[in-house]
Specification:
By secondary structure, the chain is of the alpha+beta class. It has one domain: Alpha-Beta Complex (Fumarylacetoacetate hydrolase, domain 2), CATH 3.90.850.10. Helices cover about 15% and strands about 35% of the residues. The protein is built from four helices and 14 strands. The strands form three sheets. Strands 1, 2, 4, 5, 7, 8 and 11 form a seven-stranded mixed sheet that branches. A four-stranded antiparallel sheet has the order 10-9-13-14, with no helix packed on it. About 40% of the residues are buried.
Length: about 200
């Protein structure tokens, strides 16, 4: 399986990081070793002094697909989740400033946290799906999928033009505004469509 991530998919998040708005989805990959163990803490890596949380809606692919049309994309997933794309922001900024790839800042071990999966059929409205993240009880990120520049089915169709989608692949669909650093002993709690998706301790 592979982890396919989408960057710059919420306008407010683009603005908060002073990035330019893309003409097409920004895609990057994480290795399967980035998947964090569910119900275990996230350990801040020694190589970073500024690891940021980025809460994202996730999609799990359930069929093999290539060169998909937008109108058929909805058939390629039946589970949606919530997770965190952990980013070593200091390392990312250093690499970007030199024009270098920044996979080390995004794809390190444990950098992709995946909460519980929910059947798509049980969710109220995929195109306006609310989600939120709390840090130590304080609301830090809140949005819904209608705020995406590219919706879930658009992303699946676009990604499939470049990468064959395989069963078990996970798509991280992008983060809204409100990203910030984590510190030891923080508690992150994620909610999707009113349901608690995860509770994660930072060590």
């Amino acid at each position: 399986m592979k982890i396919i991530c989408v960057g710059r998919n919420y306008a407010a998040h683009i603005d908060e990081l002073n990035n330019s708005r893309p003409d097409a989805p920004v895609i990057f990959l994480k290795p399967d070793t980035a998947i964090a163990q569910y119900n275990l803490p996230f350990f801040i890596p020694e190589f970073s002094k500024e690891v940021h949380y980025e809460v994202e809606v996730l999609v799990k692919i359930n069929r093999i697909g290539k060169h998909l049309q937008h109108k058929f994309a909805h058939k390629y997933y039946d589970e949606i989740g919530l997770g965190i794309d952990f980013t070593a922001r200091d390392l990312q900024n250093k690499l970007k400033s030199k024009g270098l790839p920044w996979e080390k800042a995004k794809g390190f071990d444990g950098s992709a946290y995946v909460g519980k999966w929910i059947k798509k059929a049980s969710l109220t409205n995929i195109d306006k799906l609310p989600f939120s993240l709390y840090k130590n009880g304080d609301l830090v990120q809140q949005a819904d999928t209608s705020l995406m520049l590219w919706g879930i089915d658009e992303l699946i169709a676009h990604i499939s033009q470049y990468f064959t989608l395989k069963i078990g692949d996970i798509i991280f669909t992008g983060t809204p505004a409100g990203v910030g650093p984590v510190a030891k002993n923080d508690l992150l709690e994620g909610y999707l469509d009113g349901q608690k998706s995860f509770s994660l301790n930072i060590k």
